[in-house]
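quick one before i forget lol
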Amino acid sequence: MKYESQRIAYWFFATCMLLFGLQIVYGFIMAFAHAGMDGLHDIIPFHTARATHTNLLVMWNLCGFMGAAYYIVPEEAERELYWPKLAVVQLVAFVAVGVTAIIGFHFSWWEGRKFLEIPRPLDYLVVVDVLLFIANIGMTILKGKRITTTASVLFFGLLMAALLYLPGMIPTVNQTVDSYWRWWVVHLWVEGVWELIMGGILAFLLIKLTGMDREVVEKWLYVIVGSRSSRASSGRVTTTTTSARHATGCGSAASSARSSRSPSWAWPCTASPWPRRAAASTPTASRSRGRWAAASCRSWARASSGSLTRCRR
């Protein structure tokens, strides 16, 4: 271990393993419940076990990412952590929020949103905790002797993970809109920024364990950043148009009534640009063309300079 402040990473990794073990325990509880052996139902109902299980996944992943950053960044920046004691405070606060959330789940204190069941007051504490973490590693990189691509990509991934948590806190009374903002957190974390974090970690490991040339590894890291950014961007456009269609109720019996009171951004329900496909009216035909319509509608919209006025299911 090159720097003394890197030792804080051990406590993050230890906490990560404890959370992972607890997730496995709740996974077994659900597995036995599925098999008909639900003896703990009166104490831990299935929906409580499921919420705890999925949120523990998020917790130990974040804890592991933080520990990795506290180990990698000092060595990449060639200096001690800027605020070592702040890292300890941040870990204690993170664990306290997590324990409070898990206990709250068992007393039905949650928001009821998949992967984001954590109650809103605790959401704000999570944001503060992550901001402390970002500030600590950011100042360490900024004040270091060098700024490497590996450390920069790792920091950028962690920063975007923090920022993309915020859309899940946007208040809304519409279930479709709420699901859309939840998508920003869940899918853009997994499909957009977690790969950047893992790319930074793997680049560091390749350089240290195999002796590969840093220039070669970091060039490939740029390729990863570009590919992940383009995929995340294309996924956001796809879901935006799909959410708009469902929000307006296109293809349903009440679509004509809804179109008169839909907002300006809504997906209008007018004639389909594919007459032969639209002519099929049986339930089987409607289901069979669902996937085709989703892909074709996007292609047709792009060919029409983004106009979505005639798209329908």
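fyi Residues 236-289, 303-313 have pLDDT under 50 and may be disordered.
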